[in-house]
Write a structure and sequence with these properties.
Largest sheet: 7 strands, mixed
Helix content: 10-25%
CATH class: Alpha Beta
Structural class: alpha/beta
Strand content: 25-35%
Distance between the termini: 34 Å
Strand order of the largest sheet: 5-4-3-6-7-11-10
Radius of gyration: 18 Å
Length: 255
Amino acid sequence: MEHDDLPTKPDDPRLAGWYHTIELGKDRVSKGKFDHRSVVHRYGLPESLKGKTVLDVGTGDGFWAFEMERRGADRVVAVDVPSMGDCDWLPRMRARLGEAIHWDPWPTNFRIAHAMRRSKVEYRFCNVYDLSPYTVGKFDIVFCGSLLVHLQNPLQALLAIRSVTREMAVIETVSDPTFDDRPEDPLLSFGYPGGVEKEPGEGNSYWLMSSAALEKMLAYADFDSTQPQGSFDLPPSGPRVTAVVATAKPWQRGT
């Protein structure tokens, strides 16, 4: 994307309707559905990532990839699927997408943010299920935020994430406020958050997890230890999410 074809004013319509709120330089900020800036400390990320390589899985508009770059990572790779039709839809829902199957807001927004921030983050198309040392390589730190809720097979996704993790993975996913009353129980709830769907599957959301459930899945995915970071609401109005830092077994980290 050419630098002379980028938003120059705060009210540029190309900055509206984003998933992430991202600072783009000067007085320009994307108008995201979520604003993670006030909760970045809730994820358990190291303050400095100097000397580290980082993979951001399901990057969306790129907020977390750019945050890793800001923290000094030597290399950041951001991956996501190319378009709406590549998300993990039920077959009958994918068949109904029509022209929306080609809708690609996040790659477009990512490229705008990348250019405006003069970023060096590398961007690739890759489904989480296809992650492997052969497709993307291995990384010291792997980040995955608010993706598992949209996957029919979250354990399979965590196994793929583990295969490319050398040291640590930071996983955040959508939870349920009622899970907070039973913090020791590995609780799962199936269905769209809040139950507001005209038809099952139309929201492309499936699993809600307690922190204990996410920790247990990470253990099944062969992570060595986990450190829950607690539950919190994504600004400005939710949903409730939970984050866990998982470390890889030292003798299995590889190179």
